[in-house]
Amino acid sequence: MDRMAKHIIFKGQVQGVGFRYTSYNIARRYDITGFVRNLPDRTVEMLVQGPTQDVDNCIACIEDCFSGHIRDKEMATVPCNPTYTDFGITG
Fold this sequence. Notes:
The structure is a single chain. The protein is of the alpha+beta class. Helices cover about 25% and strands about 40% of the residues. It has 2 helices and 5 strands; from the N terminus they run βαββαββ. β2 (about 35-40) and β3 form a beta hairpin. The longest helix has 14 residues, at about 50-65. The radius of gyration is 12 Å and the shape is globular.
């Protein structure tokens, strides 16, 4: 099974709108591990890793849900980090 990891910084009005909690609930629908957290510069950082299709679907669902709030994003493929065994909200 192909696995991948994506590190994403979401920009826009992404804090104070339930972004972390909603992203957490969306990620729980998939075989995903990683985290989501607010950063001091008012962006939201996310690490999403798991089967390629689950990662892609999870990100697409989050983007669709917050399409009116996300102004931009920086996304990079990164190595999977086995220390994450579930998906959680940090920070």
